[in-house]
Automatic annotation (TrEMBL):
Coiled coil: none annotated. The keyword Cell cycle does not apply. Residues 1-23 form the signal peptide. Residues 12-101 form the Bifunctional inhibitor/plant lipid transfer protein/seed storage helical domain. It comes from the Eukaryota. Gene3D superfamilies: Plant lipid-transfer and hydrophobic proteins. The keyword Nucleotidyltransferase does not apply. This is Protease inhibitor/seed storage/lipid transfer protein family protein. Keywords: Signal. InterPro entries: Bifun_inhib/LTP/seed_sf, Bifunc_inhib/LTP/seed_store. Pfam families: LTP_2. SUPFAM superfamilies: Bifunctional inhibitor/lipid-transfer protein/seed storage 2S albumin (SSF47699).
Amino acid sequence: MKEQIFYQFLVVIMLLSSSQIQGERCDDSGIEFLRGCPDSIDKELPTPPRPSQDCCTLVRIIGMKCICEVINKRIEAVIDMQKLVNVAAACGSPLAPGSHCGSYLVPGGMVRHHHG
């Protein structure tokens, strides 16, 4: 079982390094995340208490900025954006309140105004 996970991990790293060398946008790796964390972000599936280790590994490797770049209306139709925000936070890569992920506004930015 572990070998398979490690293999997936290698594939993700290979995908990433190849896309970064060519300076491409991160479409493929962002989609990889959506495939890797389906139960944590799907609208229909029951949400697990916390994202899987694999899911968080993808979040860390790919980065939420990239994942949010990939999300379009079609993806927003099938995933729960609030769940995605929760996954990011649970995996230690919380999205900034008031920032956008796809066309979704991450809640919490309007509560406190920072001066300066």
